[in-house]
Amino acid sequence: MLFNSKQWTYLQRGYHLTPRELQIARSVCEGLEHDQIAKQCGIKYNTVRAHLGNICRKVAVKGKTGLILQFLKVVKSQKKE
Predict the structure, then answer these.
(1) Can you give the pTM of this predicted structure?
(2) Exposed, middle or buried: residue 5 (CB in 10 Å: 0-12, 13-18, 19+)?
(3) What is the DSSP code string of 25-60?
(4) Alpha-carbon distances, residue 60 vs 8, 11, 36, 55, 73 (angstroms)
(5) Tell me, what's the pLDDT at 81?
(6) How far is 44 from 24, CA to CA, in rounded Å?
(7) How far is residue 76's CA from residue 54's CA, in Å, rounded to a whole number?
(8) Which of 29, 32, 33, 31 is nearest to 69 (CA)?
(9) What is the mean pLDDT of each run of 10 residues along the chain (81 residues)?
(10) Cα pseudo-dihedral 78, 6, 32, 53, rounded to 10
């Protein structure tokens, strides 16, 4: 597990992620691919892509790698506060 529940709550609030966006972001951070996330969530592949696009827009990053790196950066800086 990359982040604990408190850190996920911090990220969700900080980036105004919906519960579904949070679920998808967590799945991405677990290393799941779009098709795996779609199956896990019971949604279509293109819906996963749309949610991920919205997440990346809110976090101001491009792609899954950028998303994970930004989350790590934010959580690390939160620990210093």
Answers:
(1) 0.91
(2) exposed
(3) HHHHHTT--HHHHHHHHT--HHHHHHHHHHHHHHHT
(4) 17, 13, 24, 8, 13
(5) 61
(6) 12
(7) 23
(8) 29
(9) 91 97 96 96 96 97 95 87 61
(10) -60
In the structure encoding, which two tokens stand for residue 81, read together? 């506060």
Handedness of CA 27, 31, 33, 39 (dihedral sign): negative
Rounded to the nearest 10 degrees, what angle do helices 5-15 and 19-29 cross at? 130
> What's the fold here for domain 5-76?
Arc Repressor Mutant, subunit A (1.10.10)
